[in-house]
Every structure is written in structure tokens, then in C-alpha cells.
Design a protein that fits this description.
Blueprint lengths: L3 H9 L3 H7 L1 E5 L1 H8 L4 E6 L1 H4 L10 E3 L4 H5 L8 E6 L6 H4 L4 E6 L4 H13 L4 E4 L9 H7 L7 E4 L2 H6 L5 E10 L9 E6 L7 H4 L4 E4 L15 H16 L2
Parallel strand pairs: 2-3, 5-6, 5-9, 6-7, 8-9, 8-10
Antiparallel strand pairs: 1-4, 2-4
Helix pairs in contact: 7-8, 7-11
Length: 250
């Protein structure tokens, strides 16, 4: 049986202040925890016996077998699954690692946790190792974001930095996603560089836009079509990343 103190501790990690202070985050669900357990350090885990039986050795600092109702008491989700775990955040990468060859995503004020989590999952899918978020972006280690990543936090490095400073120091091409600009499908795209996508409602802020070398847009079909004003930021990021990768494999 899980103690009241542990329930209180796990619930405290729902708040960003506590996550930052302890450098921990909560992950829930059979697939998500299985994805993270082999890469990130697990400090504590509460799991049902039926799930544990399918996993083999579980390298958790403290492993608690869930009794009846324990998962529901601990869970931060409306529909709990069979396991709740507390992981230590990955250690930050050295700054020079972000300058390595390859595409880097920069998120300017992406504030919806689901959008951020989906973008991290996209980065994982398209082999993008580094995502740089402005300080006012959602927290990558918040419960909703973690769930949306589907384990991408095990393979994608997330950094928080002032994008103006980051982009000024970046020598590679700096692309930005806009509703006006050069058609994505008619623009030659490099292997390396930074791709900036903006806030859900306001797009890329002017101070960041001023540092973008090339403005890209995703054209509607047909080009004369008038309809939705813009795409969801995660959907747009998927289309942009797919075209970058398509051009690199031609």
C-alpha cells in the first residue's frame, strides 16, 4: 500500500516550482514508462503486479506494488493506467552540443502543453536531437506535456533559452515559419540550421523574426484557396520537418 506521504509528494510534482526544485517529473502509463525506464533514472515507481510481470527487471530506486485503488489515489490523470513513475530529469547538454550539425527546432512561446509534447514527439520521429524553447513556452516536464511526448524525452534534448541570444550565436541558416514567405515546396532547404515556429495565436515575435534569414510558408491547396487562417503549430511543424527530411534524402 502506498503511503499518504508518497501520494502528497507525487501530487506536489504537478507544480512547476516543485519539479524545478527537485529536478523530477511524473510519467504515467504502460507504454510511456516502458519507453523512459531504460534511459532516464527512475526514482520511484508504483505499479500493478500484472504490468510488472511483463517488464522483467525494473531499475527503480523504490518500487512499490500497487494495492487496490492505489494507482487512482496517486495518479494525476483522469483515466489512470497500471503504472505511475517519478523520473529524474536528464542532465542538460553542454551548449556546444546544440551547435552540432543537423536541424534544431526553436519554439517561440509555444504555450499549450499538448502542442509542445507533440512537437517533441515529432522531433524524435524526424531525428531532431535538440529543441530550444523560449522561457515563456510550456514546461516540457509538466504532466500533460510528458504524456503527449510518448517517451520522446528519452531521446530529445530540451533546452530553455532566450531565442534572440540563441539565434544571434547560431551561424547556420535560420528559418522561420510564417503565413507569408517563400513556399516551403519551392525553397531549397539545408541539412543543418534552425527552424523557428511561433506562438499558437501570435506567431513568431518581432524581435525573433528580425533574426530569421529565410521566411517559409506552407501554401494551401489550391494556392488560391481561402479558408482556415493558419495551421495548428504542431501540424505545421510536422509538415515543415517532413519537407526538410524529404529534401535531404533525394
Amino acid at each position: 500500500m502506498v503511503s499518504k506521504a508518497k501520494i502528497k509528494w507525487v501530487h506536489s510534482l504537478e507544480r512547476k516550482k516543485n519539479r524545478d526544485q527537485e529536478q523530477l517529473f511524473v510519467a504515467e502509463g504502460n507504454k510511456l514508462v516502458s519507453e523512459l525506464i531504460g534511459t532516464l533514472k527512475c526514482e520511484w515507481m508504483l505499479a500493478e503486479p500484472s504490468w510488472m510481470a511483463t517488464q522483467g527487471d525494473l531499475p527503480a530506486g523504490e518500487l512499490v506494488v500497487a494495492g487496490e485503488g492505489d494507482i487512482r489515489k496517486v495518479s494525476l490523470m483522469k483515466s489512470p493506467q497500471q503504472v505511475v513513475a517519478v523520473f529524474r530529469r536528464p542532465a542538460p547538454c553542454p551548449d556546444d552540443a546544440v551547435w552540432a550539425d543537423g536541424l534544431v527546432l526553436a519554439l517561440d512561446g509555444v504555450q499549450d502543453p499538448g502542442n509542445l509534447g507533440t512537437i517533441l514527439r515529432l522531433a524524435d520521429w524526424f531525428g531532431i536531437e535538440h529543441v530550444v524553447c523560449s522561457p515563456d513556452s510550456a514546461d516540457a516536464f509538466g504532466p500533460k506535456t510528458v504524456q503527449a511526448t510518448m517517451g520522446a524525452l528519452a531521446r530529445v534534448n530540451v533546452h530553455y533559452a532566450e531565442l534572440e541570444t540563441f539565434l544571434k550565436d547560431r551561424p547556420a541558416p535560420r528559418y522561420g515559419a510564417f503565413t507569408e514567405g517563400d513556399s516551403l515546396y519551392e525553397s531549397p532547404l539545408t541539412f543543418g540550421g534552425v527552424l523557428v515556429v511561433g506562438n499558437e495565436g501570435n506567431g513568431i515575435r518581432p524581435s525573433v523574426e528580425a533574426l530569421v534569414d529565410r521566411r517559409l510558408r506552407i501554401p494551401p491547396w489550391p494556392a488560391s484557396r481561402t479558408g482556415a487562417e493558419s495551421l495548428n503549430v504542431a501540424v505545421a511543424t510536422a509538415i515543415l520537418c517532413a519537407e526538410f527530411r524529404r529534401q535531404q534524402t533525394r
